[in-house]
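Write out the bound-state structure for 2-acetamido-2-deoxy-beta-D-glucopyranose.
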Amino acid sequence: MVYFSSLLFGLSAITSVLAAPAAAPAPTAAPDLAKRATTCTFSGSSGASLASKSKTSCSTIILSAVAVPSGVTLDLTGLTEGTHVIFEGITTFGYEEWSGPLVSVSGTDITVTQTSGAYLDGGGASWWDGEGSNGGKTKPKFFYAHNMISSSITGIYIYNPPVQVFSIDDSTDLTLTDITINGSAGDSLGANTDGFDIGSSTSITISGANVYNQDDCVAINSGTTIVFTGGVCSGGHGLSVGSVGGRDDNTVSGVTFESSEVKDSQNGVRIKTISGDTGSVTGVTYKDITLSGITDYGIVIRQDYDDTGTATTGVPITNLILDNVSGTVDSTGTNVWIYCGSSSSCEDWTWTEVTVSGGKTSSDCTYVPSGASCSD
Ligand SMILES: *[C@@H]1O[C@H](CO)[C@@H](O)[C@H](O)[C@H]1NC(C)=O
Ligand SMILES: *[C@@H]1O[C@H](CO)[C@@H](O)[C@H](O)[C@H]1NC(C)=O
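---
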């Protein structure tokens, strides 16, 4: 192993360790440098701009207590294959009304981790006005994981997001493990703080997430082969598919939510398709899910989103499995609500060991497929 250090880029610190050569040869320009295993450390208020300038020359990027200026994305898109990004200390973001994102990462074979005790502080309280993304201040989305291929994000702690947190889009073979999202300080004024919004992605696995927020814990708008396992969701709107419809991609297939807990939330299990739109939801499984402190619906499957009053048939929900979904709804809530547009738009449902109690029995279910039940 060869060791050297340099100050080629005028960064606060660069130390470089030559490790095994990269598998794929760099095609052009500075091949020697590109092949080196270069650790770059960026910190403070210049850290974000220096990181985005020099990122492709680094095989390890340490972001040490970076203070991202207002209105700026910590831009880690287009990283060199195999790059490891490590957050260290507290990453902060300046206040400004803008749509973000605060952080954006893309590339192939990318690893994102943090050191013990680190966190990304969104400073959400400066934006929270009770209106989320539906009005009031323009709020920045937090973390774009778009075009991440064969990559992982592990152990990241997100504190007080202004609005939606992870946007996972056009990604393939991405695992998100042991992520904490803690926006519980926003329980009165935070809104639309979705934990994980997923679109047009394949083979996404989210395991061991802890999400304290005020909207969907997970919302899958489109994609295939998506697993959410071993998670805890609190304060939000539940484990959601949808809303589906009205986007470029409206196909959801092969989704599994398993071994997870939803507590102190509006809903537990939730599938929402948009009235009048087209698409499909097929092969969704909820297995070993426990619910407690649910205020609105333990299980809600509706084809009339967004509250138009009419369930339509353009986004069929087929091959839906609920297996061992149990728990309690508050007495003012409703245990199960199924609102389908026709007998063929909700088909092939298999529910076993579904016991949700404590709330009201809905008198307003339509076209409940055989295999499911609105009264439990
Ligand atoms: C979330 O943050 C609050 C302070 O805003 C803290 O009291 C609480 O312990 C944190 N919860 C988790 C799970 O980290
Ligand atoms: C049902 O799910 C709960 C929560 O994940 C689990 O503890 C329990 O073992 C499951 N029951 C069966 C019969 O698999």
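---
Residues 1-31 have pLDDT under 50 and may be disordered.
The radius of gyration is 22 Å.
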